[in-house]
Amino acid sequence: MKLPDQPLVCLVTDRRRLAPAARTVRDELIALDRVIDDAIAAGVDLVQVRERDLDAAVLTGFVRRIVARADGTPTCIVVNDRADVAIAAGAAGVHVRSDGPPAARLRALGPAGAWVIGRSCHADDASSVAAGADYVLFGAVFATTSKPGATAAGIDALAHWCRATDVPVVAIGGLTPRGAEACAAAGAAGAAAIGAFLPEGQGPDAMGARHAVPAFRAALARGIATRKSSDVPDEV
Predict the structure, then answer these.
(1) At a CB cut-off of 8 Å and minimum separation 6, what does 66 contact?
(2) Whether 153 contacts 173, CB under 8 Å
(3) Is the CB of residue 8 less than 8 Å from the CB of residue 190?
(4) Integer Cα distance of 155 and 236 in angstroms
(5) Which of 117, 178, 194, 212 is the most buried (most CB within 10 A)?
(6) CA–CA dist 122, 161 (Å, integer)
(7) 173-177 average pLDDT score
(8) Can you tell me the distance from the alpha carbon of 166 to that of 130, in angstroms, rounded to the nearest whole number?
(9) Domains of the chain: residue spans and CATH
(10) How confident is the model over 188-211, as a mean pLDDT?
């Protein structure tokens, strides 16, 4: 499976932030199932399963179930760091950290011609880390509760990254639709978020997946339109 056309709207999972009062992992995953189902129904492009601490068998079973529910839709399911789980569960690919294995090595593990490789990148990374990836996740662009001690890279750093690589750059970190519009205007090919997809009322930016997906998509379209209009040379 290949990534849908740009712009990309990406849901990154965080079951503990979603269900802080849950008593068991099963309860956390049931809550996460609902959010992912809503996102798939709303047409999200990419779901990045970032649940590294789960037992491999539990994670594989969970990913396998959401892959089955996403079958026949444009939604890609990728797994953070665990290429073994992604393969066993039939996911579309794997997402790795900036210092993770080279893309060529990862691509050799998956189905020929259909293995999606994503990589996280940061302001101080060399653009060479994007080589061979299908997309890079750049951030944190804005201040984010997911990484309270992290320094926001800012729009200028994002724009620099977008100019430095031909690989689609997806912005992450404190993103709201308004922030996503600014990121797209700066050159981003998409937006990823955790907090905005949480059920409405569960955070300052939470709006629920069914509302977040179309809101981000519209915002990205506006940002891209702004970027394209600014690229048009003045008439002589």
Answers:
(1) 33, 36, 40, 47, 49, 77
(2) yes
(3) yes
(4) 31
(5) 212
(6) 9
(7) 94
(8) 9
(9) 8-229 (3.20.20.70)
(10) 95
